[in-house]
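Example 5.3 — Fe-S cluster assembly sulfur transfer protein SufU
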Amino acid sequence: MALSRLDSLYMAVVADHSKSPHHHGVLEGVEALQLNNPTCGDVIALTVKFQDDIIEDIAFAGEGCTISTASSSMMTDSVIGKSKAEALELAELFSQMVQGQSNPDQEKLGEAELMAGVSKFPQRIKCATLSWNALKKAIERDNEQVRGL
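Solution (predicted structure tokens):
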């Protein structure tokens, strides 16, 4: 059975992001937020540098499956330069999308929109959302630090 062009594009982009992830590493002087997915064994250490309300820089490290690594790479591309509110909106759009909920705004995700196919594989949703969940926690932690909690 031949793959559709969209399936082929999805596979090529995911493979590229997994083999050569963008923003891979650790930012100096920033405390890493660590999350893991015990189901698959994925582990992410996310470092985010905020300038006021804007994500100035972001990087991730750790070990993950192809889906987790590609999603992390796409997530960093999607949110760098965005406000915390915009990043949280993207994280929510991504979560809904990989759970099979269509939203016309999901085009805001950029290449990460190609991860919509994950919804066909429920066991992979946690892999795809790991970095996005880490981002939400990093924003929450920074907001608490700003408020002095």
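Remark. The chain has four helices and three strands.
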